[in-house]
Amino acid sequence: NNTYSLEGYGIGFEAMKGENISLKATFAKAIGGNPGASSGKNTDGLADDEQLFISLNIKF
Fold first, then answer.
1. What is the C-alpha to C-alpha distance for residues 31 and 50, in angstroms, rounded to an integer?
2. How far apart are CA 23 and CA 15, in angstroms?
3. At CA 43, angle to CA 6 and CA 54, rounded to 5?
4. CA-CA distance, 56 to 46, in Å (whole number)?
């Protein structure tokens, strides 16, 4: 069988200033391991089970 699944949870936040500026942040955490990881690392080369994504958008 050539399938496996990944699980996790997360929370996100968005703040806007007017119509032109938005700041977004998302935190995610893996539940369990990654059976497809090579040498204990994910495809990004890290073994982290937590991720933080931050995005600032400015329209002009």
1. 10
2. 5
3. 80
4. 24
- How many alpha carbons fall within 13 Å on the CB side of residue 35? 7
State the pLDDT at residue 38. 73
| Sign of the Cα pseudo-torsion (33, 35, 37, 38, in order) | positive
Q: What is the pLDDT of residue 6?
A: 86
pTM, two decimals, is 0.70
Token pair of 30 as six digits: 């893996």
Structure tokens at 51: 């991720």
pLDDT digits (tens, 9 = 90+) for 7-36: 999 999 999 999 999 999 999 999 988 877
Give dist(CA 52, CA 1) in Å, integer: 32
- How many CA atoms, within 13 angstroms, populate the side-chain half-sphere of residue 22? 9
